[in-house]
Amino acid sequence: MDPEYYAPRTHEKMKDVLMNPEAKGPDIHYYMIRGGKERKNITLWQTGTVDHEYIKTYGHYHVGNLDETYWIIFGEGIALLQKRALDKKGQPLDDEIEDFKAIKVNAGDEIYMPAGYAHLLVNTGKTYFVTADNSPVEFLDSVSQGGNEASMPGHADYEAVKKMQGFAYYVIEKEGKPVLVKNPKYKKVPDVQLK
């Protein structure tokens, strides 16, 4: 594996999107290996929580009209998808969500991330959580599009998620089970149940 395709996501970076940014967590929350157009991307999550919030990916919207499919290889988790409302000029409103999905996933499942939806995955199991995905942008392409490393490729918009300190809901452990907790930074969020 070429080292430039390997991307660990550190606790320091994840503080941007945690429910409690001051809480202690593992040095690395998850590991990515970028495969690009010809090979799938592989992601592996640590187990555990950060002040009751399960380990998750950073989350992002795609730039342009890109969709993506994830295949769950090992473990169990929850996929979060959210779609922003639009203003009168058709521009997305970062703090208003018109659609939100929280879907439990297990090894063998496949989940489709439609264009226009931000997405992240959460490890709610007691083991590593491992996925493959077909994100269509090569690492070297992402550098030319403004990305500066494999962990923050140019085809993904992380800023809208960072601005809101994460998604519209956090997934936390309560009495041994995952529950959704609204992120108070959002003005408008649909009520959601875990599926």
Summarize the entry for a quick read.
With 195 residues, this protein is mainly beta. The chain has helices spanning 11-14, 139-144, 159-163, and strands spanning 6-10, 28-33, 41-45, 49-50, 53-54, 61-62, 68-74, 76-86, 92-106, 110-113, 117-123, 129-133, 156-157, 169-174, 177-182.
What does this 3D model show about the protein?
- By secondary structure, the protein is mainly β.
- It has one domain (3-182): Jelly Rolls.
- Helix content is 8%, strand content 44%.
- The protein is globular and about 45 Å long.
Task: Summarize the helix and strand pattern as letters.
Answer: EHEEEEEEEEEEEHEHEE
Number of strands: 15
- Termini gap: 37 Å
Parts with pLDDT < 50 across at least 5 consecutive residues: 141-150
Helix content: under 10%
**Would you tell me which CATH topology applies?**
Jelly Rolls
Mean pLDDT value: 90
Overall structural class, as computed from helix and strand content, comes to: mainly beta
By CATH's scheme, which homologous superfamily applies? Jelly Rolls
The CATH architecture: Sandwich
Radius of gyration from the alpha-carbon trace, in angstroms: 16 Å
Number of helices: 3
Tally of discrete structural domains: 1
Envelope shape: globular
CATH top level class name: Mainly Beta
Largest sheet: 6 strands, antiparallel
- Beta content comes to 35-45%
The side-by-side strand order for the widest beta sheet comes to 1-2-3-12-7-10
